[in-house]
Amino acid sequence: MALFTTRIAEAIRRNDSMLCVGLDPAFAKLPEKFRNAEKPFFEFNKAIVDATRDLVCCYKPQAAYYAGADRDDELRATIDYIHENAPDIPVILDVKRGDIGSTAEQYAKEAFERYRADAVTVNPYMGFDAVKPFLDFADKGVIILCRTSNPHSGDLQNLVADGIPLYQHVAKLVRDKWNYNGNAALVVGATYPEELRILREICPELPFLVPGVGAQGGDVKAVVTNGAVGGAVLMINSSRGILYAADPREAARRLRDEINLYR
Amino acid sequence: MALFTTRIAEAIRRNDSMLCVGLDPAFAKLPEKFRNAEKPFFEFNKAIVDATRDLVCCYKPQAAYYAGADRDDELRATIDYIHENAPDIPVILDVKRGDIGSTAEQYAKEAFERYRADAVTVNPYMGFDAVKPFLDFADKGVIILCRTSNPHSGDLQNLVADGIPLYQHVAKLVRDKWNYNGNAALVVGATYPEELRILREICPELPFLVPGVGAQGGDVKAVVTNGAVGGAVLMINSSRGILYAADPREAARRLRDEINLYR
Question: Which residue among A64, A151, A160 sits closest to B129, beta carbon to beta carbon?
Fold first, then answer.
């Protein structure tokens, strides 16, 4: 299996797209025909994948939506469906795990063996040994929370130590120490475009997963201008803005094209 | 339902115990009779609970062990069993989640509704809005990672901002802002007893969940002397040291009594 980072770069080129579609189904928001299906989340995701697979560089199911609804089997079925029907499109399982080494090994098994994801999001708060069991899967991507998109992300991430904020320490740790297999990436929220610009300077070569356009209010132009510099990889995620659009394919195409305007 | 913190204090008094038993079954380590059972993790946990329920103040299943082995149903069965057969013993679901608000709501549903846990562990890296959906369940406990027990926990947690390390910022945020429902607690590793002493000075009244005695090498005397000050609550976790002892009841009793020596 090729490296995740290689596969993402190829998918970006093939579909001319830096769009990541977040597969975060909420039962109450599904169109009625899916709510009445035997596997509503899976059937809904299948329709979204069928409508967008030539317009995206990756898919990102958010594990919480399946876990909270007791529909783990539909998460697995969704990932299997993508592997079988859109084999060139990598799947990022958004779980944001982080735990001591022996426990992180179990979470890595969950993401990469049970769910067969191509990449996973992880939390850096516990340090290197909490991330290493994921990084050791050299052909899988490991996308580490750096500057997150939510309103209070600065509570800790903006604390300044040795002259730079915590999130920049994370970026430097990843760049200098954690990327020993070349499979690391960062989560950088679209809602903080200036921080995204600084992070791109610090890490010119790391792929960034960028949530926060659409419902969270991030600006596409600022994200692309500040982040897609010198051929660097962005995976710009939209979930609600595409899943619940009147025409998801049209919404995906529009966002892909808007991103491409500024590349 | 009484507050988690009240229930823990009552369980400590009733069983004269600050021992938390971690229910982290690993298939290869189970005695053969359990490996051959239809629900090996559940049957094993049931035996551990039956052997220790008068010796502990809480149980703490680590979700990763069930998720990694695709045995979520046995996690739910284990928690149900404890609620039914040891109703005075609270259950902490160790998941260390943390995500943006709308996603954290799903994880809170997973922990408190799907699994019916009494408390949950969460990661503070993303800030207040990532923790609030858990804190809003006022009768549930929310145990926030502060100074974790693993070897590289200092990578971020020891970075000094405004004169104090990051983990102390977390402690002060929890004490001053996040404990608005009186249901917050901290994770403080037994492997860093000096930091535990400092944290007890900063937060004299917050309960501490203390992993890291036993297999990870934490010193019981230092933990209790530094942490169980002025009637403050400790939940001292042991997993492997009890689960795989020749006689789990005897191992639990020994550790409970060792803890009590220094209270």
Answer: A151
